[in-house]
Amino acid sequence: MELGTLKETYASILQRFVQRGEEKDLAAAARLGRCLVEADVPPEEIAEIHQHGIRSLAERRPDVVSLHWAERLSAPLMEMLMAYGLVFRRWLEERDQAQQQLKKAYATLERRVRKRTAQLARANKQLQREVQERKAVERMLRIKEFAISSSISATAMADLEGKITYANRAFLALWRYDDPRAVVGRPLAACWADRGEAVRFRDALDRHGGWTGHMVAKRRDGSLFEAHVSGSLVRDDRDVPQCVMACFLDISEQRRAERLAQETERLAAIGHMAARVAHEINNPLAGVMNCFRLIKEAVPKDHRHYQFAGLIEKELLRIAGIVRQMGDLYRPAQHVTRPTAVAQTIREVVAILEPFCREREVRVEVDLDAPHLCLPVPEPSLRQVLYNLLINAVEASPPGKTVKIGAFSAENRVGISVSDCGGGIPEEVQPRLFEPFFTTKANGASGGLGLGLPTCKNIVESLGGTLDFRTQAGRGTVFRIVFPSPSDQKG
Fold this sequence. Notes:
alpha+beta, Methyltransferase, Methionine Synthase (B12-binding Domains), Chain A, domain 1, Beta-Lactamase, Helix Hairpins, five-stranded antiparallel sheet, five-stranded mixed sheet, 14 helices, 12 strands, 56% helix, rod-shaped
């Protein structure tokens, strides 16, 4: 309410009070006093409002300007002032009380803010630690995932139902998959050639939590290979099974090498025994042959049984040849005094066997890619090996075909190859080809004793080389003698 309006209102209250003098006019003055507080009128303007009311009343009632009326007109003023004062005092008390409450509320709020700030600071530190720990855990998980993914061990994970959920690159390569999606969802048991072994593997995991052993694995194309498998049942921190993890390692080459070593050891033992037997037979045989020569010389050529002397001598010589071959089965490493010219040795062996080849109607073709090749091997040993291999090749080739013999030098290897045009070596025969006394020839140039190839292999390996073969049904067989190059042997 504006000041002018308040002045006029007070003047009206005074006029009515002069006219009537009733209590309600004083009550109206008290209400006006309270309105002055609500209108935020300062105390010094109350006197101006009262003076304005007196002046207005004097203009209308000149008779009220006496001292009697002045005392009487003080009653509305006092009522207004008292009401003003009471309201103002109450306002001041309420203000003070509000200020105190505000201070208390501010102090409480400040304490809460400090407490909440401290809590937020601790929570922020805890959150930062958790973020750092989570980052560290995520980093370790990425490292572990990378380690599993790049591991040379073929690793796969499967759910508790046995379905593959993950496979690393080594697993895909080992089982010949191009796309990981082709593996996910397949049963882990499909990796085993024998499903019964897969069931036993899973039973071992359920009972013991892990299993390690060997298995025959089956690829997606049906091919088989030997593998070492290590499996575990993965559990969480509450010891609840979550998945199955299996690691596979192809040990086919290792197994092949072990079998080859065992076979080599067995053959060496047989050769050693045969050599000892040959040595024990050779001494009395030499005595028998010497005695027989004396007896033969004492028998006249016109004797009716003289022909048997020739047969006996022939058989004794055959026995001596067999004994010599048995002795050759075990040949310790030999000291080489000078290298052997390969080309010259090949030509000489071919020349020696020319009548035999002509009789069999088989031609021998010499191909020398390395005509000046020399090998650090004894010439008689190389000659004996080539002689045996060429005889076998000629016997295996049908009339009209060609046997090829050649020398080669490639990278850090040198060697000689002998190839025939026969029907190839049957698959069931191949594992026993270098086994002493094993033969498929009923009657050949070597006598069919099964000692030729074992003797050749023993000679070559005793000189630091290898003798192997490749065969194809209907297209023949190639035998290869391979030695490290002379420069590598010197180094």
